Q: What sequence folds into this?
């Protein structure tokens, strides 16, 4: 043991750089895996916690005011019921802004879907105009208990007495109204009712919805929200972040595993002599394997430990969502287990790859013999001969020959170097795609920047005229959005009428064509998946008691509502219901217009009758991802660098054997250096080409798969610009050449005795 | 057999064929050998005769295709690589022509490593190392790295490393092969000195001058023992020619 330690200690002293790299790489990988775990935990767990604590309703049904929703309590599989409670739609205003809300009249604190008071207190008959706001809504309105809210257009005032968490789908400005609890007396003329069903078997949700609809009749049903929808919404971007981080963490782990394996392999080739001597003086093969294995396991352990400590101690201080996620994650039950398993798993993986290389070290014969000719090195190809004849610099020809003739090893080197580069290409694609959401949102399904709700006092024509009068508004598309029951009546989807036949809404189509004719519509991927239909199919849905039959002629990119959206023109919906009035206007702005500025101007022009929101960009939530992607690119570049150094070390060492021969045939030291540099650059070039060729389709596939699973739909993937790729490739090849130049030049100038020492 | 008559090393019917590229090379074909305690045996022969392979077989660095080796009367047929490694720690010291020292380790570490491997306490290992290096004229070189030493110095360190555990048997494979005449003289003087203290030595060399220092010279040719002659005990006869130049003094 002492002898082993002595050798390990000396080895560490002479190879500090390698040791440092292994520690840093492991730390980087483990940290990114831990952060991914934290984001996963963060994404799923707060909602789950709230849902459990509030005894959330699995199904929330909005019905007409006259429906006898109380009957649902008797349905099979319904464990308990919240409500029915009367509801009314309102717009509330505070200093922080305006929001459309659903005012829900509750006599006491509901047993199912019981709001979790986070500040203030619950409703009290002593303050009849008191309300409790759902926490996201309260945050959007910048209100706290004690504030007063106004209802624009009326003299009515409401006092906020509390703020509470709820497990129902969250408030999204301009899309989903926020939840406000009030005493029933505060909802004098309810527009509808809401009833929450808690089921004995949550897996039965679809069936429960179906029975509820049958019980009350399709005409009585408004919107149906299920717990799955609410959870998917709550997880949203965080899950994507977690997946991206996890994917890259695993990719980096794999790349680092290869890098470690390659580094140790090359080290062993360089140490053959020493290993032989060690064996000759009495090291057993087992001891040799153990020395290498323990050494590298220790480095990996050190790195993993550092990463775990850093993530645990400083992770919460990272600004933005990543920090929040770490904070929340630290309070979750699985935290300790993950904090332990992730580093241990990474160390074991690195240990396994090290074991393979160490095993080879154990098999080195104890006699310091000349190595068998490394491989059937291959003759100069005909092309190479002709190139030499044609006065192509011999260094180039020999370098090329050196890089690509020893098949298995050169392929291995190219592959190992290509892996981090490939991941970088994927990371750049993710970056470009996120960038595209901001740079040209119209190509990502967000052609309009503002969404406006108008008071009934303005009238349709008036509102439209007012909006289009603004110089920076390119077009205003009137629209409505209603909840429609899908066939089978197991869920509701958003049916949108947007634009008119005369002025169609500019949908971003990924498949099929735009909807022109009557009854034609385009749908998001989420809807196609939900209904198991394809572009070209006809679908029948129910709006109120009216059936609506639409022909899906295209698939649009739908970043909202998990893609469960079907859109047609307003005219198509009017054919069914001539009374239909536009509920909102989507505004397309002139290029270069600042949405916030236009919104302010329009709100002022509307004199309180217009409610203007900027359309939420799903990529806003992904901004922290950019920092993460950047960090990953750095880690991957580090891994690539090490692969490169390993490669250069190997090439230079092998070159030593030929040094005298090359000098003897009359190559200058500079030419001999050029041979090595060319070989390294050639390998790097091959790796870059391979990485680009594989990375681009892989990135497209991954991003599209992600888009499909989130309902947005395939077709959002964007490859990095050719310039960026060219830059990456040039940097890799030139960097490889530059890195190789110094050691190669030193090796070429070394005075070598004609001994066997260069052989082993 | 009594302790005194048991040979330190015995080999019977050793055969080793190398299968490299091209035709198989019969390096050792049927060698029987006995080395008694305290003997200094030189194996000479032209290069390519299979001398080194024979030495490797005797030190357990390579395994014979046929035949057996006895160490102190103990048959080693069943030894695996690991067992041989353990034997080499205490019972066999080896010096090669090249590659004797671990390049990453200092001179001191190179010498102490076998002692530590054999389970000697670090303090004792250090003391043994200091004593040996002093004896070999290498005081103050303990901290040097092998690359900083001359060839002769490196071979002396190698000798110290081979002898630090006081093994009953020293195998030396062309220990002076890469040295100049001064280095060669130094190494030979040291070998003779250790031999006079009772060290059993098996030396492989193609150099007749070196061989003349031994008690017994075995001529090796084409993988077989061609001649096995004991030189006179007493002072070596004065001869004309190359061997006459070499006067060995302690």
A:
């Amino acid at each position: 043991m002492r002898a082993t330690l002595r050798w390990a200690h000396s080895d560490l002293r002479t190879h500090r750089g390698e040791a440092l790299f292994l520690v840093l790489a492991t730390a980087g990988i483990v940290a990114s895996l831990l952060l991914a775990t934290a984001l996963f935990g963060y994404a799923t767990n707060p909602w789950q916690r709230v849902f459990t604590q509030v005894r959330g309703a699995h199904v929330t049904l909005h019905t007409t005011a006259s429906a006898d929703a109380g009957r649902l309590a008797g349905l099979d599989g319904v464990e308990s019921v919240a409500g029915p409670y009367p509801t009314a739609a309102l717009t509330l205003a505070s200093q922080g802004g305006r929001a459309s809300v659903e005012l829900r009249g509750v006599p006491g604190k509901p047993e199912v879907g019981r709001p979790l008071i986070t500040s203030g207190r619950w409703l009290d008959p002593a303050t009849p105009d008191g309300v409790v706001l759902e926490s996201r809504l309260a945050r959007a309105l910048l209100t706290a208990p004690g504030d007063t809210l106004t209802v624009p257009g009326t003299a009515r005032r409401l006092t906020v007495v509390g703020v509470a968490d709820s497990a129902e789908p969250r408030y999204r400005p301009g899309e989903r109204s926020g939840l406000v609890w009030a005493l029933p007396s505060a909802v004098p003329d309810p527009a509808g009712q809401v009833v929450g069903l808690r089921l004995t078997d949550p897996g039965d949700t679809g069936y429960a919805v179906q029975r509820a609809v049958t019980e009350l009749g399709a005409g009585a049903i408004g919107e149906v929200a299920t717990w799955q929808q609410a959870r998917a919404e709550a997880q949203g971007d965080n899950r994507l972040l977690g997946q991206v981080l996890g994917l890259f963490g695993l990719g980096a782990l794999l790349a680092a595993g290869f890098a470690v394996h390659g580094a140790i392999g090359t080290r062993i080739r360089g140490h053959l002599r020493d290993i032989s001597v060690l064996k000759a003086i009495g090291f057993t093969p087992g001891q040799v394997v153990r020395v290498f294995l323990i050494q590298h396991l220790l480095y990996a352990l050190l790195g993993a430990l550092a990463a775990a400590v850093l993530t645990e101690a400083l992770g919460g201080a990272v600004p933005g969502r990543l920090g929040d996620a770490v904070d929340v994650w630290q309070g979750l039950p699985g935290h300790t287990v993950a904090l332990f398993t992730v580093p241990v798993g990474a160390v074991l993986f690195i240990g396994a790859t090290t074991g393979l290389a160490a095993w080879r070290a154990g098999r080195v014969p104890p006699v310091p013999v000349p190595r068998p000719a490394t491989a059937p090195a291959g003759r100069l190809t005909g092309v190479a001969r002709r190139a030499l004849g044609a006065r192509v610099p011999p260094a180039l020809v020999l370098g090329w020959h050196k890089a690509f003739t020893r098949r298995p090893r050169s392929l291995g080197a190219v592959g190992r170097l290509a892996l981090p580069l490939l991941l970088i290409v994927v990371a750049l694609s993710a970056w470009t795609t996120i960038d595209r959401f901001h740079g040209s949102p119209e190509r990502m399904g967000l052609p309009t920047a503002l969404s406006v709700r108008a008071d009934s006092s303005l009238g349709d024509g008036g509102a439209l005229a007012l909006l289009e009068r603004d110089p920076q508004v390119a077009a205003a598309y009137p629209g409505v959005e209603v909840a429609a029951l899908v066939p089978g009546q197991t869920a509701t989807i958003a049916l949108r009428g947007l634009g008119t036949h005369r002025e169609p809404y500019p949908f971003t189509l990924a498949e099929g064509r735009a909807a022109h004719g009557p009854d034609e519509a385009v749908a998001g991927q989420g809807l196609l998946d939900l209904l198991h239909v394809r572009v070209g199919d006809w679908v029948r849905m129910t709006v109120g008691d009216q059936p609506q039959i639409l022909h899906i002629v295209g698939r649009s990119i739908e970043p909202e509502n998990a893609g469960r959206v079907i859109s047609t023109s307003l005219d198509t919906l009017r054919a069914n219901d001539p009374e239909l009035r536009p509920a909102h206007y989507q505004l397309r702005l002139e290029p270069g217009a600042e949405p916030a500025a236009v919104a302010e101007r329009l709100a002022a022009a509307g004199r309180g009758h217009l409610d203007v929101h900027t359309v939420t960009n799903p990529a806003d939530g992904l901004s922290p991802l950019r920092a993460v992607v950047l960090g990953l690119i750095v880690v991957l570049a580090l891994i690539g660098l090490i692969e490169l150094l390993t490669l250069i070390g190997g090439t230079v060492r092998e070159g030593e054997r030929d040094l005298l021969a090359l000098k003897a045939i009359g190559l200058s030291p500079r030419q001999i250096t050029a041979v090595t540099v060319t070989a390294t650059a050639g390998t790097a070039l091959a790796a870059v080409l391979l990485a680009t060729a594989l990375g681009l389709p892989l990135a497209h596939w991954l991003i599209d798969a992600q888009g499909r699973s989130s309902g947005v739909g395939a077709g959002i993937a964007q490859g990095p610009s050719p310039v960026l790729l060219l830059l990456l490739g040039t940097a890799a090849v030139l960097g490889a050449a530059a890195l190789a130049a110094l050691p190669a030049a030193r090796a070429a100038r070394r005075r070598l005795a004609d001994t066997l020492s260069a052989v082993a | 057999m009594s302790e005194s008559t048991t040979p330190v090393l015995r080999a019977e019917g050793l055969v080793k064929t190398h299968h490299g590229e091209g035709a198989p090379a019969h390096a050792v074909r049927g060698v029987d050998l006995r080395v008694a305690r305290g003997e200094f045996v030189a194996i000479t022969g032209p290069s390519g005769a299979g001398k080194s392979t024979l030495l490797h077989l005797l030190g357990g660095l390579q395994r014979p295709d046929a035949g057996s080796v006895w160490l102190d009367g103990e048959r080693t047929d069943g030894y695996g690589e690991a067992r041989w490694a353990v034997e080499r720690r205490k019972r066999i010291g080896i010096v090669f022509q090249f590659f004797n020292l671990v390049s990453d380790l200092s001179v001191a570490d190179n010498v102490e490593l076998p002692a530590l491997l054999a389970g000697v306490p670090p303090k004792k290992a250090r003391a043994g190392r200091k004593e040996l290096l002093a004896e070999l004229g290498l005081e103050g070189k303990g901290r040097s790295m092998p690359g900083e030493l001359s060839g002769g110095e490196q071979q002396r360190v190698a000798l110290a490393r081979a002898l630090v555990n006081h093994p009953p048997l020293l195998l030396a494979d062309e220990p002076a092969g890469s040295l100049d005449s001064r280095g060669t003289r130094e190494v030979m003087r040291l070998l003779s000195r250790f031999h006079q203290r009772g060290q059993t030595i098996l030396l492989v060399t193609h150099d007749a001058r070196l061989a003349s220092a031994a008690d017994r010279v075995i001529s090796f040719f084409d993988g077989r023992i061609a001649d096995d002659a004991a030189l006179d005990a007493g002072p070596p006869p004065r001869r004309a020619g190359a061997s006459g130049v070499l006067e060995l003094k302690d």
